[in-house]
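Reply to dn_fold:

You asked what the input looked like. This is it:
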Amino acid sequence: MGIRYHDWLRQAENDLQWAWYSFDGGYYAQTCFISQQVGEKALKAYCFFKEFDVIRTHSLFQIIRALNENGELEKHAKELDIYYISGRYPDAFPGGAPFEMITKEQAGRSLAAAKAIFAEVSKRIDTHDDNTEPADS
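and this is what came back:
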């Protein structure tokens, strides 16, 4: 089993808290980007948990495909992939900076998607960890 998956999941959880603070502060573009990061780190945690050697993409949709997932996780991955670039870079839009273009509603949806991915991955990992017998010493 991947040796650092817990670190990835814990960082995703910490980033989720950061996303909430950003949302509450009215930083909607930043909320969208960090929500994408939450999803990416949670999904990478799951990949490492499933003993993937390396994941060389920032696309949540590509990670979902590598995991042979679909359904809700795929839907949330597609929602969040939009913000990897557009939540940060002014040239992602024809005009205007991300903080001027991204709305509270978009930030709320991205936060909900990040929370859902984190919760599902956590549940899968925790369920497995709870059912694993400690090794005899």
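Residues 5-130 form a domain with the Four Helix Bundle (Hemerythrin (Met), subunit A) fold (CATH 1.20.120.330).
Hope that clears it up.
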